[in-house]
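Subject: MarR family transcriptional regulator

B.,
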Amino acid sequence: MDHYTKGDFQITRSIGFFLNRARNTLLMEVDAALQDLGISGQQMGIVLSLDRGVAATPYELSKLLGIDTGLMTRMLDKLEAKGLLARSRSTSDRRVVNLTLTEKGKAVAEQIPNIVPPVLNARLKDFTQEEFIEFRRLLIEFAGA
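Prediction pasted inline below.
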């Protein structure tokens, strides 16, 4: 089923417009909340993924977070310069770079769950539990995750 046609498509009424606007708004709010930790919302995804063992290489992080490899490299460079992560070559395949959080990176990761949920909850405050569950389900389906 087509939900848009050439004749009725309006950019400021499209799903893409609202998803982008919601993402940008949320990212600005998360960035502001994380400012004292010295990381951005996008960098938070890297730190938490490494901390929780969800990903361990730049390639895995790129796929998981939907970030192109060039941007991923720049973000990893910044996190490494801040002393939050370390890179090492795989001993079995020198082409593979493994990433690990430093002690400083682990300390930052430990603080994130105290900072970000209130930001998310503020955005979701008018949702019922059922609406929240359905919203999350629809986003997962839309994202193809």
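The mean pLDDT is 94.

T.
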